[in-house]
Amino acid sequence: MTPFAWMLLLAASTRGELADEDCQIPAGEWRYVEVQLHQEPASVSASYEVRSGPGRVRLALMRREDLERLRDDLPHGHLAETPLGKSGQLTDAFRRRGDYAVVLDNRDGTSATTVHLRVWLEFGGRRDPEVTELAPGRQFVVVAVSLAVFFGIVTYSSRRLWRAVKR
To answer: How many secondary structure helices (H) and strands (E) does the chain include?
Structure first.
């Protein structure tokens, strides 16, 4: 391959590391890493591993608004979340620009925990198609038309077979 082709291949998917560090999380607390996507959509990946302490933590990916609600001890949502454990990983593809956060949660813990956290972004590369769903009215129409066509074919075929058997 020519050097130019190699450069194009490498430029097609770029990876940016946001965090690769050890975090000390006191019992009942949480820490976060900001993820700002203002230029182009990307896929965010994060992994963690408990280095010291008996604690089990949770890793969550959430929008900035949900982080503010978490900060105010209000009900909040998340885009992806790992179960409580000593290690875990999550990946999610963002389709919209905006501000997000990767949160290490030790609120269920009874002692401080040291966790190694890695967060990285992948720009470009393979893009997953956006999954959509038909409106309930259209779903009904699709099912009704499909059933009508199916029973029409079955009726037509059975009549033809019945006539052939009678002869």
So the answer is: 3, 8
| Spans of all domains in the chain | 10-124, 133-167
DSSP alpha helix (H) spans, 3-135 = 3-12, 64-71
Residue-wise pLDDT for 100-125, tens only, equals 899 998 888 888 889 999 998 887 75
User: Closest by alpha carbon to 59, among 42, 35, 36?
Assistant: 35
Contact present, 141 and 76 (Cβ < 8 Å): no
Residue with tokens 């885009």: 79
Residue 75: which residues within 8 A CB-CB, separation 6 or more? Answer: 69
- Strand 113-124 relative to strand 30-37: parallel, antiparallel, unpaired? unpaired
Q: Considering the entire predicted model, what is its pTM?
A: 0.63
CB atoms within 10 A of CB 27: 14
Distance CA 92, CA 61 (A): 8
> What CATH code would you report for 10-124?
2.60.120.680
Residue 94 confidence (pLDDT): 65
State the pLDDT at residue 147: 96
